[in-house]
Amino acid sequence: MLDALTQQPADALLALIKLYDADSRADKVDLGVGVFRTESGATPVFAAVKAAEAQLLEAQDSKAYLGPEGDMGFVHALMPYIFGADPAKGGRIDGMQAPGGTGALRLAFALVKRAGSNRIIMGDPTWPNHTQILSDLGMEAVSYKHARSDGTADMDALRAAIGAASAGDVILLHGCCHNPTGIDYTAQDWDEIAALLADRKILPIIDLAYQGLGQGMDEDAAGLRKVVDAVPEALICYSCDKNFGLYRDRVGALYVLSRDAERTTAILSNGHNLARTNWSQPPDHGAAAVRLVLRDETLTRQWLDELADMRARMRLMREQLAAADNRVGGMDLAPLASQNGLFSILTLSKEQILTLRQDHGIYMAGSGRINVAGLTSANMEKFVSALAAVAG
Ligand code: LMR
C-alpha cells in the first residue's frame, strides 16, 4: 500500500544547506537559508539566551506537560514588544505558543479554513512555505504582485487585490523584512492598508518572523500595530527563530485579535484543539529561555544590544553591495541599501544562479534570493566579482 507514496523532491531551500555542506571549496559562500551570520560566518547562540539557558538548567525542576497552549509566560512576555502599550487591548488579544513561525502559520491557516474560508490572498513572491502549507491544507492562494522593479512595494497591485476581495476574505501580509524581497511597506502604505482592510472587512494574517532585524523592534512592528488598531479581527504569526537565534528550537506564537475577550478565548480554544491533533504541545526549551530573557532587565538589555549589532552588520553589508552597483552590469544593486532584513532578490536567471554555484561556490535560493548576512568583508569582493562575471 505504501508504494503509493512516491519519492518527493527535498524542500528546495533546505536542500541548499546540504549542498553547501557537501562543497569542499574553502572559499564557498552561503547566501541560502535565512540564518544570521557574524563577520566570521558563524551563527552563534545569543549570549543572553545562553545565560537564560544556564538559569533554566539550574532552576527548572520539572518537564511535565504544560498543555497545548505551551508556555503562557513566554506568550505574554512577548506581547508588549509586538503590540506596544496596552498589548492585550482589554483581553481582545491573546495567544498561544507554536512550534516556530511555521507552526503558527499552520494554525492560522487551519483556523481560517475551520472558520469557512478556503483561500488566502498573498503577495507574489512570498516565502515558498506559505504556499506549501496552504496547498497541504487543500486551500487556495490568490496572488498579487508584491513589488515593483524599482524596489518598492507595488501598492497598486495590493489595492487591486483588496478591491477584488469579498468581505470575509483573508490576506497574508509580511509585518517586516519581507521574505524574499526585503521590500517593506512604508508608514504611509501601512496607514492605507489598515484603512482598506477595515473598510473592506478583510481578515489580516500578519507574519512577523523578523522583528528587530529591519529598523528596530518598535519600528518593525509599527505597521502591524496600525492594522491591529484599525480592524476588529486579526491573526498574528510570530517567530523567535531569528530575533533570538533559536532556529532549531522552534519558538513561535500565534496571537488572536477579536472583538472581545470571550471571542478571543473561543478562537484560541480552536487553536488548542488543532495543536493537540498536530503536535499536542509545543517544544518547551526555547520558549522558556525567551521568557527568562524578557523577565530579566539585564538579559533583555543584552539581547536588544545583540540584536542591534546584527542589524548594523546587515545594514553595512547592504550598503557595501549597493555601492558595487556600477560594477555588475545591468543588475540593480542600489535598492538593496533601503531594503530590510536578511533577504533581497537579485535579478538573475536560473543559469546564472547555477553558474554562481558551480563555478564560484556561491549558494543562493533558486529565486535569486540572497541572505545578506552570509556576506562578510572577506567574501564581499569575491561575490561582487562573481556577479560581474555572470552578468557581463
Ligand atoms: C528562510 O526563508 O530561509 C527561513 O525562513 C528558513 C526557512 O525555514 O525557510
Which structural class matches the secondary elements? alpha/beta
- What would CATH call the homologous superfamily of the largest domain? Type I PLP-dependent aspartate aminotransferase-like (Major domain)
- What series of H and E elements makes up the topology? HEHHEHEHEHEHEHEEHHHEHEEH
Radius of gyration in whole Å, from Cα? 21 Å
- The global form is globular
- How many strands in all? 11
Q: Helix count?
A: 13
User: What are the bound molecules?
Assistant: (2S)-2-hydroxybutanedioic acid
Strand order of the largest sheet: 2-8-7-6-5-3-4
Instruction: Find the CATH topology of the largest domain.
Output: Aspartate Aminotransferase, domain 2
